[in-house]
Every structure is written in C-alpha cells, then in structure tokens.
C-alpha cells in the first residue's frame, strides 16, 4: 500500500490575492490489499480503512486543515476519486486527464473561485470482472483545496494501536501530536548533549544544530534490506579467461546504514565501519545489531561482498558494471574500527557480542590476510584492479575504496599496496587484543606473531619506504610518463612515453602515503612521523583551508580525468572519512610523549577548525552534507544529501576519536 502527495497551485486574479492550493493524497494498492472508504452522513470521506499483509489493519484520516499554529478548522473544498489501479507509472497522467474547472471554492462570506478538481464519487467505478475482481489493485485519491497559509495532517493509525488495551488510544494528531513531538525533541537534545557535549565544549547553537542534523540523517538512513545478490565465484586463478556466469546467492537480510538514501540506498562494506563509529556513540545496541547482520553475510571462505545489492528493486537502481560482486575482491575492513572502540569501552553487552562474533571476525580477517597476499612476505595487493585499457589514464582499484587514486601505471602481480598492508596490520592488532581478552589462546598464539611482524617498522620500511620520494608509497610496474591525448575518432586515449615503466615506488603523494600514520601504526618516536607531518602540513601537497586533499596538488594526476567521461574522484577532493582518521591520528600523537607531540597537537587543532568550519559553512549555504568537498573553494561536491561518513563531522566537533 502506497501513499503519495502532490500539489497544484491555481492562479488567481490580482497581484496580492493569495493563491488556491490543491493537495492530492494518493492511496494505492497492488491488488493484494484492501481499501474501504468510510463515508459520512453528507457523502464526504471520513477516513480510509484498509488491510495489508505487512501492516495488518490500518486507518488513514485526512484531518480538517487549520491556519498554522491554530486549532480552528479552515474552510476547504474536497474532491474524491476511486478507481482501479492503472499502474504506478500511469497514476499522474490519469489524474491530469480527469481534472476540470467546473468546481468552485466557496468560503463563507467570500467570492467563489474556480479551481481544477477531480470529478468522482465514492462509488466503485469499475464494477464486475474488469475491476476489483481482477486483482489489479485500487487507487483512491482525496483532493483538498484551500487558501494559503494552512496546516494539514494525514494521520495513519494501525489497527493494533486502535485495539490495544482496555481503553482506545486517543488519536495522535493536532496539539497532542505537537506535545509528543516536543517531548521527543527535548529528550533527543538532552541525550545528544550528554553523549557529545558540544555545548559544554563551547560550540555555537548553529554548530550544535549541524551535529544534530548529521546524526539524525545517518540514523534516518538505517534500513532493513532483504534479497539475493549476484556473485561471481572465485575460480582461484586471477585473470583466468574461463567464462563463469554470476550466480544469485541465497536470500539474506541486512540491517545497515547507507551513504545516501537517495543516491546510494544500499549497504557498502567500507562505508559501514565509519557509519558505526557515529552510531555506536549514540546507541551501542544498534551497532551490535548492524555488525551482526554484516558478519552474517560471511560465506564459507570468510568473504563479505563490498556492495550489497539485494533484490530486484535494488538491482534496478545500480549501474550494470557494479551489480556483480566478485568473491576474490576485498574491501577495507573498517568494521574493525567500531570493534576496536568496543574493546576500549568495557561495556558487558559489547563484550558478550564480541564473544559470539569472534569466530566470524577471525574467519573474515584470515580470508583477507590470505587472499590478498602480495608477491613477497608481509606484502599485500588488492585483487580486482581494472585492466590497462587504452582509454584509462590509470586503471582503477575499486576494492580499495579509493577508486581512481593513482596506483602503478601498469597493473601487475608484483604490486605492493601500502594502504592494504596497513589495514591488515590494524586487523591483526585488533584480533589479537580481542583474542587475548576473550581467552582465545590458540587464536592469540596464531595471530600474535603476524601482528608483531606487521607492526615492525623495519619491515614496513623495507617494503614501502621510498627514500627518493621521502614518504611511504605503493610499489609496482610504473612510469610517470602517461597522458590522455585526443586521437580521433577514438577520443582520448592513453599515451605512454619515456621513461618506460619499471618496478619502482609509485610517486602518488596523497591519502595512501599517510596510512601508517592514519591507522596509528607508527611509534611516536618514529623517524618517519616527522616527514609525514611535513607532507600533511604543506599547502603545496595535502593541506588546504578546507581539509586534507586526497591527492597532492603537486601530483601530475591531481584533478585529472581518468578517461574522457570519468572525472576525478579521489584526486584532490577533501573526504571526511580520511580527514577524520587524520584528526584521530594527530590527536593520538599529540597526547603521546615524543619529538612531534606539540606539532601534532597544533596540526590537529588547525585541521579540525578547517574541516568543521567548511562543512558548517556549506551546510549553512546549501542545507546539505556532501559526499566530498573541493580543496580549492570548499564547495560541496558529488551527491547530496550524503549523511553517511560525512556525519563524522559530529565526532570531529566532539573531539571523539
């Protein structure tokens, strides 16, 4: 059963005359539900009773309109129309074709005015076998026409609520609804301040409102999904030419937040860990429920798909190239970020959850560690880079989550990916801590040496420190001499010049370069921490007045299209999730004794001001949180509203890392 609302403004004569506005309330069923209009003594519609398998019995009532803030009914003209359902795509055209100007709005003591109305009655129009008996559903529309300004309420009441208890519940509408909402708003504000303490920290009421909007939008995006996803099995041989069709996995449920309800209304694995960092502070129970659902997606090998496109409806919203999930491809294990927070919190309910979840967390980490192993011990490589097509400046690495961030110019099995090694190192650290707290001695003994080896800076230096670049870097078959050039009639094509590609460190200074610091893997006395802070703080490279750039302004890939029709994504824009990691790292090193303590603390304060200030200004200007922000002028970019990981601005304001 669906309820829609549309409106129509009727032009009236006279410049100062208030317009007539018609609101159309559509109630539509697909044939499996029941709708029964209840008619008053004068033939008007009192309310609509109905029943569906999902909702049970229900009632919809269009309350009498009033002036805003008033309780006295305001005069309105009513029209109703009841018919069989022609199909959702045809509803609007059906209504438009039946509108006519016979009707007059006649308030007492005022001149009548004509308006476009629906002719109809509450008599079933299509009687017999061609109508209700065909199971094509019902379409009932109520039109109310009146002068602005006005307030109108459509009340939905479930049958269970109406029948509950010995005393029927009073209808939750009008002043009663206002009072209930005000009570909930006050409770929300009290819980919000107790949790995040923005007022106590001296943030302005406007900044507090931004934080409340960030949290509310993220919570409002949490939903329940159910269906089958398309998965291409791992054949065990990367790049195999063997043709295998994707298969529908068994139906699964997923309770999760989403990056954007309007643009990305589905679960994304690496986004969800960031989402739950915010949700966890507000309601740990919700986070336990969400993590449990994600871990429930684990297959027999320990793999979880990075994008959950569940069911026919979800598949209809996703471009074909993103529909199939490949069981050889990983994604950053960000669900371990809220797990790490649970380990620090000491909540018995969290501990009980982690005890139940440990076997699946262990299996997931083991799959990641083994399946993404690199060419030499303690190195790792993202499987699933795009092939080196002639139209691509730099083949993407979608499994990394950083999509078009520049990697080695010529994909090969010799690559060593810095960010992936850091994610695995973080995973090993968290799993060892969890195993030790749970008393899982066998798992702790297995994971402990791996964690120690991955955290050893000598090993990290050996595989990823690029002395000639002065930073950590990826390694692979690479050359800087790649460009997109026009070549009619193909359009832009990649041209490779000299020097020719060779195995070397990849000079792509940006977010990836910072990962040993971002995930707090470096000792506060590390000789590598200073150079990373230099790069971070340099406006020629990563620093901007609006946050850290994803790719250095000095990089030849900065702001470059990846193909003729593929604009830059992680090539300079400011992203909140990585800026949040940077803030957390700077706060961490700013509170640990070492040669860089004072500088890290100062950079944290300045970066926090830049990031929070820009998100707040853009929210004030546009009313939205955005997917990313321009490093040049701070404007919001990408999709909006994006109340996924951009909601981390709340934790940045609260200095909660």
UniProtKB/TrEMBL annotation:
<keyword id="KW-0256">Endoplasmic reticulum</keyword>
<dbReference type="Pfam" id="PF03200">
    <property type="entry name" value="Glyco_hydro_63"/>
</dbReference>
<feature type="domain" description="Glycosyl hydrolase family 63 C-terminal">
    <location>
        <begin position="174"/>
        <end position="655"/>
    </location>
</feature>
<keyword id="KW-0378">Hydrolase</keyword>
<comment type="function">
    <text>Cleaves the distal alpha 1,2-linked glucose residue from the Glc(3)Man(9)GlcNAc(2) oligosaccharide precursor.</text>
</comment>
<comment type="similarity">
    <text>Belongs to the glycosyl hydrolase 63 family.</text>
</comment>
<keyword id="KW-0812">Transmembrane</keyword>
<dbReference type="InterPro" id="IPR038518">
    <property type="entry name" value="Glyco_hydro_63N_sf"/>
</dbReference>
<dbReference type="InterPro" id="IPR008928">
    <property type="entry name" value="6-hairpin_glycosidase_sf"/>
</dbReference>
<dbReference type="GO" id="GO:0009311">
    <property type="term" value="P:oligosaccharide metabolic process"/>
</dbReference>
<dbReference type="GO" id="GO:0006487">
    <property type="term" value="P:protein N-linked glycosylation"/>
</dbReference>
<dbReference type="InterPro" id="IPR031335">
    <property type="entry name" value="Glyco_hydro_63_C"/>
</dbReference>
<dbReference type="InterPro" id="IPR004888">
    <property type="entry name" value="Glycoside_hydrolase_63"/>
</dbReference>
<protein>
    <recommendedName>
        <fullName>Mannosyl-oligosaccharide glucosidase</fullName>
        <ecNumber>3.2.1.106</ecNumber>
    </recommendedName>
</protein>
<keyword id="KW-0732">Signal</keyword>
<dbReference type="GO" id="GO:0005789">
    <property type="term" value="C:endoplasmic reticulum membrane"/>
</dbReference>
<dbReference type="GO" id="GO:0004573">
    <property type="term" value="F:Glc3Man9GlcNAc2 oligosaccharide glucosidase activity"/>
</dbReference>
<keyword id="KW-1133">Transmembrane helix</keyword>
<keyword id="KW-0735">Signal-anchor</keyword>
<keyword id="KW-0326">Glycosidase</keyword>
<feature type="signal peptide">
    <location>
        <begin position="1"/>
        <end position="17"/>
    </location>
</feature>
<dbReference type="InterPro" id="IPR012341">
    <property type="entry name" value="6hp_glycosidase-like_sf"/>
</dbReference>
<comment type="pathway">
    <text>Glycan metabolism; N-glycan degradation.</text>
</comment>
<keyword id="KW-0472">Membrane</keyword>
<keyword id="KW-0325">Glycoprotein</keyword>
């Amino acid at each position: 059963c669906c309820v829609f609302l549309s409106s129509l403004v009727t032009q009236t004569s006279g410049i100062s005359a208030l317009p007539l506005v018609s609101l159309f309330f559509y109630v539509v069923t697909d044939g499996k539900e029941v709708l029964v209009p209840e008619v008053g003594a004068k033939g008007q519609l009192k309310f609509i009773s109905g029943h569906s398998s999902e909702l049970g019995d229900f009632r919809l009532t269009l309350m009498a309109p009033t002036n805003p803030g008033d309780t006295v009914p305001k005069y309105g003209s009513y029209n109703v129309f009841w018919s069989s359902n022609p199909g959702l795509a045809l509803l609007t055209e059906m209504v438009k074709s039946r509108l006519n100007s016979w009707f007059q709005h006649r308030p007492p003591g005022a001149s009548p005015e004509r308006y476009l109305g629906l002719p109809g009655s509450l008599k079933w129009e299509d009687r017999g076998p061609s109508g209700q008996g065909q199971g094509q559903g019902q379409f009932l529309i109520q039109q109310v026409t009146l002068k602005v300004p006005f307030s109108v309420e459509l009340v939905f009441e479930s049958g269970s609520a109406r029948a509950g208890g010995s005393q029927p519940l009073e209808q939750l509408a009008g002043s009663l609804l206002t009072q209930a909402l005000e009570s909930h708003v006050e409770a929300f504000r009290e819980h919000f301040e107790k949790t995040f303490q923005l007022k106590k920290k001296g943030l302005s009421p406007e900044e507090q409102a931004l934080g409340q909007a960030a949290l509310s939008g993220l919570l409002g995006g949490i939903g329940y999904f159910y269906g089958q996803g398309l998965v291409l099995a791992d054949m065990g041989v990367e790049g195999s030419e063997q043709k295998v069709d994707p298969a529908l996995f068994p139906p699964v449920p997923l309770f999760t937040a989403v990056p954007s309800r309007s643009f990305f209304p589905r679960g994304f694995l690496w986004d969800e860990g960031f989402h739950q960092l915010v949700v966890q502070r507000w309601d740990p129970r919700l986070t336990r429920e969400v993590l449990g659902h994600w871990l429930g997606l684990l297959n027999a090998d320990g793999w979880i798909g990075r994008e959950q496109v569940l069911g026919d409806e979800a598949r209809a919203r996703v471009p074909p190239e993103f529909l199939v999930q490949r069981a050889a491809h990983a994604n950053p294990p960000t669900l371990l970020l809220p797990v790490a927070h649970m380990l620090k919190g000491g909540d018995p309910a969290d501990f009980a959850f982690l005890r139940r979840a440990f076997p699946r967390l262990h299996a997931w980490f083991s799959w990641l560690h083994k399946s993404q192993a690199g060419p030499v011990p303690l190195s790792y490589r993202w499987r699933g880079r795009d092939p080196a097509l002639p139209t691509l400046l730099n083949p993407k690495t979608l499994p990394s989550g950083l999509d078009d961030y520049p990697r080695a110019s010529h994909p090969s099995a010799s690559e060593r990916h810095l960010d992936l090694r850091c994610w695995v190192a973080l995973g090993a650290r968290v799993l060892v801590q969890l195993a030790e707290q749970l008393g899982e001695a066998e798992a702790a003994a297995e994971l402990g040496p791996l964690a120690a080896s991955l955290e050893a800076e000598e090993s990290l230096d050996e595989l990823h420190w690029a002395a000639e670049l002065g930073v950590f870097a990826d390694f692979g078959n690479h050359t800087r001499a790649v460009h997109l050039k026009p070549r009619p009639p193909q359009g832009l094509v990649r041209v490779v010049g000299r020097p020719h590609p060779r195995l070397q460190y990849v000079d792509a200074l940006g977010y990836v370069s910072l990962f040993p610091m971002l995930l707090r893997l470096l000792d506060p006395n590390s000789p590598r921490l200073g150079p990373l802070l230099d790069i971070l703080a340099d406006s020629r490279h990563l620093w901007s007045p609006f946050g850290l750039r994803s790719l250095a302004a000095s990089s030849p890939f900065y702001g470059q299209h990846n193909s003729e029709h593929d604009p830059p994504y992680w090539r300079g824009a400011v992203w909140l999730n990585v800026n949040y990691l940077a803030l957390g790292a700077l706060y961490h090193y700013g509170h640990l004794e070492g040669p860089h303590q004072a500088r890290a603390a100062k950079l944290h304060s300045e970066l926090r001001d830049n990031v929070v200030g820009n998100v707040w200004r853009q929210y004030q200007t546009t009313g939205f949180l955005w997917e990313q922000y321009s490093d040049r002028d701070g404007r919001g970019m990408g999709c909006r509203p994006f109340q996924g990981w951009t909601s981390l601005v709340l934790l940045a304001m609260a200095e909660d890392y």
